[in-house]
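Our collaborator T.R. sent over the components below with a one-line note: 'Predict the complex.' Nothing else. No constraints on interfaces, no templates requested, no preferences about which chain binds where. So this is a plain run: every listed entity goes in together, and whatever single assembly comes back becomes the starting point for the next discussion.
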Amino acid sequence: MDLGYLLFLLVAFLAPAAAIIPRPVLRTLGSLHLPANPTSRPAVANNYSVLYFEQKVDHFGFTFMKTFKQRYLVADKHWRQDGGVILFYTGNEGDIVWFCNNTGFMWDVAEELKAMLVFAEHRYYGESLPFGANSFKDSRYLNFLTSEQALADFAELIKHLKRTIPGAENQPVIAIGGSYGGMLAAWFRMKYPHVVVGALAASAPIWQFEDLVSCGEFMKIVTTDFRKSNPGCPESIRRSWGVIDRISNTSHGLQWLTKALHLCGPLTYQDIPHLKEWISESWVNLAMVDYPYASDFLQPLPAWPIKVVCQYLKDPNVSDSRLLQNIFQALNVYHNYSGQAKCLNISETATSNLGSLGWSYQACTEMVMPFCTNGIDDMFELHLWNLEEFSDECFKQWGVRPRPSWITTLYGGKNISSHSNIIFSNGDLDPWSGGGVTKDITDTLIAITILNGAHHLDLRANNAFDPKSVLLARTSEVKYMKRWIREFYGSLQRQH
Amino acid sequence: MDLGYLLFLLVAFLAPAAAIIPRPVLRTLGSLHLPANPTSRPAVANNYSVLYFEQKVDHFGFTFMKTFKQRYLVADKHWRQDGGVILFYTGNEGDIVWFCNNTGFMWDVAEELKAMLVFAEHRYYGESLPFGANSFKDSRYLNFLTSEQALADFAELIKHLKRTIPGAENQPVIAIGGSYGGMLAAWFRMKYPHVVVGALAASAPIWQFEDLVSCGEFMKIVTTDFRKSNPGCPESIRRSWGVIDRISNTSHGLQWLTKALHLCGPLTYQDIPHLKEWISESWVNLAMVDYPYASDFLQPLPAWPIKVVCQYLKDPNVSDSRLLQNIFQALNVYHNYSGQAKCLNISETATSNLGSLGWSYQACTEMVMPFCTNGIDDMFELHLWNLEEFSDECFKQWGVRPRPSWITTLYGGKNISSHSNIIFSNGDLDPWSGGGVTKDITDTLIAITILNGAHHLDLRANNAFDPKSVLLARTSEVKYMKRWIREFYGSLQRQH
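Returned assembly:
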């Protein structure tokens, strides 16, 4: 993975037309994502109101008075004023409707908890654009895209809800989020414990910063996921990079490769780094969405997709050409499981619900997550983490430089034991678990590990094929949430 | 107290020459202050190094890259790498040298705690001016004067100290502050519990916001302090306002008044509101510095100055002229105890160490503290709290409008029970105790009340005339700090 090259690609996305086309690197090396699963819970089944709240663009200063409309969704079918709760989804880097429709867990527990569901859109994503169409045009406009501002939005929104919804005032609020949204949920409880009584932070890699965890952990887990299916699988993938390099050295080889991988357009030598990145991205995504049931993440995927992929990659000791033909078969599972595509398009990915521009800026400022590979503990090519190079690319692209230690200064890094009431859940298959909290810190900072779980499987809707581990995780999560609710009402009673 | 009028006066202070002249209103209705006491601990006795640390002007954005030099003082004579602690003064609205020399408590306990003392200057005060001489010239320059930015400065500074001072890395840090500095100490522990293991928040009115406490509480306590000396004293003062109004109705009366009060310049009718404010301010200051021993707050004061003042005001039922002559005698105690002054100057006050401009801006943005008087529960004239009028004056003066509920949204108001390790100390004589935490919230959020204590008496140096209550308070404070230090080293050991 040549990060410099990939960032160079990102620069090009500033052209308006490209703004809606997300790039692999964002998902691989930055943006966390939540896969859609319309089959298990169609969007139409969820009834919610779409609302807007006027937020200050800058919560932390008094000179710039501009406001913008933050979108949020409310579903109160099961909400009860008597003993109820507000479950507040701390929206992350994408359209909130998409997160709303893909966080089935909240819908599944609403009745049991007498819960009002609120899904708050993160500023600079979806419709919540502080400067409308200009939001990404200038670093001055982007200056207010930070996690601190987003948390302040959430705090102000909850205050607004409590002020305006009769019966909401004396109700506990629980923050829920997955991925970056899970980080926000945890940080929200840490910084605004007076606003939320607790947080469920699913697959939240709050330690994927500085040297809190090894930068190679992420790709090591991806590799382990593939090895679990069969040991030859990651070996095949590891071998493939060199083979691609050798074959692409001649124009004949490039032609052959284009054909072997069924690509939509002819490869040039210059495309090879991007091709390899696109392939890497496919393996990474598979690790994230290695769910136990068929899911439909824009293109459909089978149950346990890595198993299916690895069937084609059992034997690394085949000829170079056979190896790449096998790689194609494997890629075809991820990119063309439906069999509808006539060719594979390496300039297309499947995350248009995610705001790639916004995340690219966040990764260049606060969300500096070091990633690296060594090709030994993982199945990828050697790539060192180079902060200086990264910083230069960020400056070229956005006119800003990252402050890699700021998140640790602000949110405490590993030193968070004085906080309380946060559940950190992680699937052991999820590469993001490497930067997550996977051991209890105190008896109120709880780690839940979901065996055979991929990226925040627990937040997804109930499914007949759910492994027992995720059912136990959800039961445990509900148990903790009920405890927080009980404690809230208990202390409310003591006050009166 | 005519707040509109007083704010009008403030506008005039924007002229550079006036910048160093603080105004009574700032101290009465906004700025908290810590009186100097050079007699009990002369500045020369404290040996410290003066250092500077490069801070980002804007911690919460990435566009504006400017930095400035934050001043801080370090005294490490008694510091021990083995089992020591860093006591960190969270500087407030003034020159840090002044706070350093007036927080004798830290110097007194340094040896016992093997402590390094650090005094960090608050941005926009003393020498720590983000835009140098221009810092107050424009609301755009002032945009970074907030408590959040100040707390981030403290966090970055402590990180810097731990990184650069050998042996400091694995030491606990305790935040200490008085008045607004005490609020910062408490908020610092709330928001950055990973940076400081605890906080001593002395005379910190963290609830002097919105309607968390009654806006009349402050002046009620001032009045009670005077009543304690003798009941006629506040009656005399309450009567004085009407008498001043009546007498100042004629030019002859104005002349008489000028003479009776020994004023340096002739009064005009237009001066009367300011005269009354200046007098009110004197009573308020006396309540804050009603210390049990002679102290020297720019001008010297006797021990228990309110008692001395009230000797002249025992009988409210004297003639109008006699009453005002008595008022003069009382004022003369505060403004001319040394007997050196030939006249009283109502345009002079005694807090040039406090940054009045900075606090005026803070009061107009975040630090919106409602004050009111009704003339019944207190000895002042009726004055309602009028947010709209206040906001308009702020807009005229600074081009900003206050957000009165922001501090509560950010720091939790009364809902702070999930935090830990904060000592809130308050003297019962101190009018600021009305907005302080005076009852234990949990067994780690401790309230200490100091009987017969004025404004953060506990932070002052040991004095032979200290009442037993403050000795007990200091002992208790040291006990809690030792516990935090012990817990820190205990958990450090468990980690290894």
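Summary for T.R.: The mean pLDDT of chain A is 90.
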